[in-house]
């Protein structure tokens, strides 16, 4: 429809109302080509600004001298429209009250027929009303009205309305103005003025099937992927608040979130996929996520998590963690249970000489209360639970801990957090203990600091994320491949 709006904006003088509940034409554009550009059609009808011929405003329509009673001799035809109930109204007057024998206005409707050989998809016209004038003809403005036929009013189907101006004897012409037709504009000026090609909406949610990711489900419409382009990578160092070996491979997770929303852009569910790729730790680490500032009671259910209900975990009836102000979802309680190290091997997929283990995939779904949560309210805060100790959490830099975290750990060891300043999980070099990378990347081999593999990571951290925002990409000079795991 954008091209139609552009056309209206350009032809500022036209009074055709395209998207109201009526269609109208009053000739005030002074240029019939404007109306034909908006899909009106006129046969043997011109525009006039002669004062004696104008009915209202500065311009009116004017017929040729009627010489036939054939409805196709002289007419005004509407664009395709979906007719509504009401009256088709028009003002007319004649240029002479005696120079004629008979004058008649005929009202017809034209159905849509895509098989019509005319090229305009017009079916056979149907006459539904008329009014007739005999001498003396009125030379002052007269208002006429034709009731929209019940057969087509509110049918939801496309029709055209045609008013024909016919007569016999004499030369006096019709002057016409202010034609108004009840209905909704349904023509496409960009496609030979044929009816708009309606696209299907199978579930009737107001989103066309071509735009609907769930065309047969009225409760769902759109998918938003986080990250947008591909799966992301989460890297954790579990020695916090000490730096540890700083190789960031204690738990390596691939992740992708799908935010499902309805036609009103309210969140229906959050689908998550987590792939445990590597475990470079002896600890039994878990993984959870907090939906910051979102109350747990806005969640209906959670499914697909991989937990064995350890003693440290208490859940609400909807699957969220109990005794938390914000919604917390523990997705994995022990990653080592999902991907155990082979016999004789200490770690999983962090040593190049060790056996490669196929990653483990977890697919979980968080269902939200109907029409309660906006997309802007979804703020995912992922974290590591260190060695089954619930109070020991490792979050991304400057992401707040949950209510379960032991705040006394902050500011100890190598940690330089300042709770009052909302500074969390950063050491004195401004480096974090967890990284969220919006791409699928490799990670450090065992006991090689991540800064030895990603050579610009420290520069990025020291700049508070302003410089080297692409530090993780495979660009010459950015990586030292010998210190990174190749799988």
Summarize the topology:
Blueprint (H helix, E strand, L loop, with lengths): L1 H9 L11 E4 L6 H6 L3 E3 L1 E4 L11 E4 L11 E3 L3 E3 L3 E8 L7 E10 L14 E9 L7 E6 L11 E10 L5 E12 L1 E2 L5 E2 L26 E5 L5 E5 L14 E11 L5 E12 L7 E6 L7 E5 L23 E6 L2 H4 L21 E9 L11 E6 L7 E3 L38 E4 L12 H4 L3 H6 L25
Antiparallel strand pairs: 1-12, 2-5, 3-4, 4-12, 5-11, 6-12, 7-10, 7-12, 8-9, 8-11, 13-14, 15-17, 16-17, 16-25, 17-18, 18-22, 19-21, 19-23, 20-22, 23-24
Strand content: 25-35%
Q: What is the strand tally? A: 25
Number of helices in the DSSP assignment: 5
Distance between the termini: 50 Å
Decide which structural class fits the backbone.
Answer: mainly beta
Overall geometry:
elongated
The major beta sheet can be summarized as: 7 strands, antiparallel
Q: Give Rg in angstroms.
A: 37 Å
Helix content: under 10%
Summarize the structure.
With about 475 residues, the protein is mainly beta. The protein has five helices and 25 strands.
């Amino acid at each position: 429809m954008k091209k139609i709006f552009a056309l209206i904006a350009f032809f500022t003088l036209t009074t055709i109302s395209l998207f109201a509940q009526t269609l109208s034409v009053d000739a005030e554009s002074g240029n019939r080509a404007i109306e034909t550009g908006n899909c009106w059609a006129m046969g043997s009808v011109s525009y006039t600004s002669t004062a004696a011929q104008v009915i209202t405003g500065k311009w009116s329509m004017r017929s040729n001298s009627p010489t036939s009673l054939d409805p196709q001799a002289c007419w005004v035809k509407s664009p395709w429209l979906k007719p509504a109930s009401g009256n088709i109204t028009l003002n007319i007057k004649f240029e002479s009250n005696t120079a004629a024998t008979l004058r008649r206005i005929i009202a017809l409707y034209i159905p849509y027929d895509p098989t019509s050989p005319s090229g305009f998809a017009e079916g056979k016209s149907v006459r539904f009303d008329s009014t007739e004038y005999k001498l003396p003809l009125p030379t002052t403005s007269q208002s006429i009205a034709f009731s929209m036929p019940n057969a087509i009013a509110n049918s939801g189907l496309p029709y055209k309305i045609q008013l024909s101006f016919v007569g016999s004897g004499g030369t006096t012409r019709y002057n016409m103005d202010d034609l108004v037709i009840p209905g909704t504009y349904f023509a496409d000026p960009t496609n030979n003025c044929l009816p708009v090609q309606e696209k299907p909406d199978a579930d009737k949610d107001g989103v066309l099937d071509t735009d609907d990711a769930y065309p047969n489900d009225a409760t769902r419409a759109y998918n938003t992927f986080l990250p947008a382009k591909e799966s992301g990578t989460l890297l954790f160092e579990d020695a916090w608040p000490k730096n540890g070996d700083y190789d960031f491979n204690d738990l390596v997770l691939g992740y992708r979130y799908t935010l499902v929303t309805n036609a009103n852009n309210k969140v229906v569910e959050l689908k998550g996929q987590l792939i445990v790729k590597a475990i470079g730790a002896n600890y039994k680490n878990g993984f959870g996520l907090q939906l910051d500032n979102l109350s747990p009671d806005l969640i209906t259910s959670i499914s697909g998590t991989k937990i064995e209900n350890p003693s440290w975990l208490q859940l609400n009836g909807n699957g969220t963690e109990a005794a938390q102000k914000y919604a917390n979802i523990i997705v994995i309680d022990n990653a080592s249970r999902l991907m155990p190290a082979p016999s004789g091997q200490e770690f999983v997929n962090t040593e190049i000489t060790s056996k490669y283990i196929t990653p483990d995939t977890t697919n979980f779904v968080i269902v939200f209360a109907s029409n309660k949560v906006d997309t802007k309210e979804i703020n995912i805060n992922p974290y590591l639970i260190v060695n089954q100790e619930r109070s020991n959490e490792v979050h991304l830099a400057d992401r707040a801990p949950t209510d379960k975290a032991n705040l006394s750990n902050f500011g100890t060891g190598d940690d330089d957090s300042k709770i009052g300043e909302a500074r969390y999980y950063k050491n004195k070099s401004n480096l974090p203990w967890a990284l969220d990378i919006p791409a699928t990347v490799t990670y450090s081999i065992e006991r090689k600091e991540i800064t030895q593999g990603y050579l610009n990571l420290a520069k990025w951290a020291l700049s508070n994320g302003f410089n080297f925002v692409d530090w993780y990409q495979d660009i010459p000079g950015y990586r030292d491949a010998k210190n990174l795991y190749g799988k």
